[in-house]
Amino acid sequence: MASIKTRILVISDTHAARPHAAPAPDEFDAADLVRVVTGYRDPLPPADLVLHCGDLTRRSSVPEYETTFSVLRSLDAPLKLVIAGNHDLSLDPACDSPESRAVRAVARDAQRDGVEYLTEGTYDFALENGASVSVYASQYTPAYGGWAFQYPGRHEFAIPPGVDVAMTHGPPYGVLDEAGLSGALGHPPHHAGCGHLFEAVARARPRIHCFGHIHEGWGAYRGTWLHRDAPGSAASRPTEECVMDGAASGPIQTLDGLRPMCAADNRGRSAEARQRLAHLSNQRGCYIDWTYEKAHVDPGRQTLFLNASVMDIRYRPSQLPWIVDLDLPSAENKHRRHRTSEHATLETMQNLQNTKSHHV
User: Fold this and answer.
1) Which of 52, 91, 117, 270 has the fewest Cβ atoms surrounding its Cβ within 10 A?
2) Quick check: 55 and 86 in contact, CB under 8 A?
3) 322 near 9, Cβ under 8 Å?
4) Domain residues of the chain, as ranges?
5) Over the chain, what is the mean pLDDT?
């Protein structure tokens, strides 16, 4: 099947922040690397597809949604897909108020500029560049405090095998999910990801799994799966150790060495580190070529994991977007299909999504 090289811009956890102005010449020579805004700068790079993995707001106010949807509408991409996060209480089906109805109106209006708000489910899109992409979306995260879209106990992430992209708000357990500053300070990591989500990803093996939620987990990870008949693959609660090839898996880029996370973190402070951070900021993100020829990836064998949180642990937009090139199948002679899981409410679907087949 013919494939089409497709550029995807991935962001998350922008919390109603607008991209900052372009960096001044030599700005990074003397900048405080803990606080400096990196690649979340205007203009963000053009793409065939933009993915925003949730936490559109910080306090779920109508002006915050207006800001975020305005930013998404302005991006140079024909299609922008967005899900909610735990901060986005007004989008939770449990919330029915004048504010929540106003927010849904903001989301509906943004469809005119190619912004599609997705609830939990699986979707197929025909892109303007001629490619077809299948996307599983879920905004749900484990219960922690009184936030939105959270579940106690177990949640079924119905990710279909072979899907191109899984976009969730939270990370899977053990992958780019280290919470707090323990790693930066040399202490054992605290993993805050969801084990049920990791199980679902291990079964489905999407080509890309992108998320946010744990700001300090920002990074990219190449996961190479063991064969399905390998010992441990049939475990009821599979873990990274029993379903991934450790020798062929590992981080592509994390905050470790890229920039310091706090004043006590001495990593990423060299002149070379400053120059690299300045370069990445000027190109408005970290670039990964995940095409077959360049990355030597086999569908069902590798998953590119991306934590795309733009905000750092102190809610400063100091982390870089991700720019990914991916080979996708041609949309020629394919119809756009729309499927939703049982967790997507009829009211939300009717108000926020066009459920009829159409070509984007």
Assistant:
1) 270
2) yes
3) yes
4) 3-329, 332-359
5) 89
